[in-house]
Amino acid sequence: MPGYSDRLNLRIKRLRTSALVGLDPRWDWLPDEIVRSATASGGTTFEIQARAFEAFSCSIIDVVASLVPAVKPQVAFFEQLGPAGMTALLNVMKYARKAGLIVIADAKRGDIGSTASAYADAWLAGESPDAAPYPADALTINAYLGKDTLQPFVDAAVSRGAGLYVLVRTSNPGAAVFQDRASDGDKLFETVADVVQSLNNEFWPGDSYGGVGAVVGATWPQELSDLRSRMPNTPLLVPGYGSQGGTAADVAGAFAENGLGAVINSSRGINFAFRRDDLASQFGPEKWRDAIAAATHEMIADLREHTPTP
Amino acid sequence: MPGYSDRLNLRIKRLRTSALVGLDPRWDWLPDEIVRSATASGGTTFEIQARAFEAFSCSIIDVVASLVPAVKPQVAFFEQLGPAGMTALLNVMKYARKAGLIVIADAKRGDIGSTASAYADAWLAGESPDAAPYPADALTINAYLGKDTLQPFVDAAVSRGAGLYVLVRTSNPGAAVFQDRASDGDKLFETVADVVQSLNNEFWPGDSYGGVGAVVGATWPQELSDLRSRMPNTPLLVPGYGSQGGTAADVAGAFAENGLGAVINSSRGINFAFRRDDLASQFGPEKWRDAIAAATHEMIADLREHTPTP
């Protein structure tokens, strides 16, 4: 079974970029055209919003599928619409996979034993989109409960050629409160990072990159660079570029010299590019897809200029 | 708005028990009657299983609604069935609320900023079942990302009279790996506990119990007792009684002298009581509801004997 990282890196090398586009639909910010069309078909508020989220996300996929290796739907925004939202999410994920994109479900799940297995079964389709109801190539997970609680996810990742991204150092301002607590010289996030790297050593021995990745925020350039060295076989998922303040220079340390080793996420900056003053003037409200394309090209160029290019 | 803890404690005092029944449906263990009926109606595998999970969970609710204050659906088991599973979960939660039960959604969610708000909007209905698509009175959450990421959940809990249970010291064997890392004399879970108590001090001042609870495993009696003193205004949710090895004596330290302050969860031990040798012989495969009732009465009696009775 080709591993997750092999499949991801193949696309990264072909497209020569590690730009990852988050899919974060928000009702209040959608293009008028999407809102009008979804509303016209009627139904409950949740059904209307779910239809709009699906149409909007699929439009973004149409724009970016030939430009970037992967997309990252934010599960929370679909979950808040009830089962209708989950149906929309599922359709978006299937649509992205059919378009050839790697799909990283940003769900930040985590639980113990058989419950963790149930989450893995929900999300980790891996190589075969039919292997899970929500057909993700990879899933973000939370390790607070302990190393033993990661194992059911790792087992599923191994058997299905799927990937995981464990939260290590998150992009929010308060990330340090718990994650930086030091014990015997190591901070908590460093201990979590060591566990992640050890799982790659054990379950993907000899691979340049294993199936267990780490989430490390672009808002912490020093930690990002330190963690790149500390977890040499661990693929990184870097949120916080763009809207949250991280720059291309800030994320340069996430990459190996050959330009592999990380994907850099932008959500709002791409999804709602048509609301950015300069792009709004350039494209107007109707050509919002063109604004999204322009912002994607801009991000790719920015990364090529300031980080090692794959 | 009456707070979550007020509503919970009212039911605990009326029923004179803090027993919490987890709803953890598993396809392979369901009563034959449930499987046959769900299969006869046809549909996809997910639809059939979701229908069975709903029927089984609602049957448990019928049995326990007059005996215990609350139920705790495990979201992962429904999520693994795709959108059909989420519809079943929603129906189960509505059914439980109509039966007068407090509903604690065990979803262990957690994310940053507006994403955390979206999860709160998905789950935290609080006092009014119509205030969220999944009408939970309370939600389990994960604090690894930082204190700032709890705030959107706390804001929703305050405004809707809802509750939260933050993972503090979980019941799994490997819980200590990260949770017990000591820093300046305090273990990580103690630092998380202090944050939880501080949120209750700040947002529910003067209340015997605030809206932010803590999850502490029955498998760690000493920590449970220490945490009860450390978080005097924090309601506890104690998993791990029964199947995971925790006894009533182990959880006695979770309670204040008046018998309030904690709910003790049993999932498998109640849900699949009809598969326990002695109850299987006593009731046979058809009277599985009676076996569930017997196991519930047994748990309540066990708690009354070994812990302070509300």
Structure description:
With 310 residues, chain A is of the alpha/beta class. Chain A has one domain (4-306): Aldolase class I (TIM Barrel), CATH 3.20.20.70. The first copy, chain A, contains 14 helices and ten strands. In chain A, the strands form two sheets. Chain A has an eight-stranded parallel barrel with strand order 1-2-3-4-5-8-9-10, surrounded by eight helices. In chain A, strands 6-7 form a two-stranded antiparallel ribbon. The longest helix of chain A has 20 residues, at 45-64. Chain A is globular.
* Number of distinct helices of chain A: 14
Q: Would you tell me the overall average pLDDT of chain A? A: 97
Structural class of chain A: alpha/beta
What is the CATH architecture assignment of chain A? Alpha-Beta Barrel
Helix content of chain A: 40-55%
C-alpha-based Rg of chain A, rounded: 19 Å
**Segments of chain A where pLDDT lies below 50 for 5+ residues?**
none
Please write the CATH class name of chain A.
Alpha Beta
* H/E element sequence of chain A: HEHHEHHEHEHEHEEHEHEHEHHH
CATH level-four homologous superfamily name of chain A: Aldolase class I
The structural domain count of chain A equals 1
General shape of chain A: globular
Q: Which oligomerization state do the chains in this entry correspond to?
A: homodimer
Q: What is the CATH topology descriptor of chain A?
A: TIM Barrel
Largest beta-sheet characterization of chain A: 8 strands, parallel, barrel
The most extensive interface, with participating residues per chain, is: A-B, 56 and 56 residues
Question: How far from one another are the termini of chain A?
Answer: 24 Å
Q: Tell me the total number of β-strands of chain A.
A: 10
Report the β-strand fraction of chain A as a percent range: 5-15%
Strand arrangement across the biggest beta sheet of chain A: 1-2-3-4-5-8-9-10
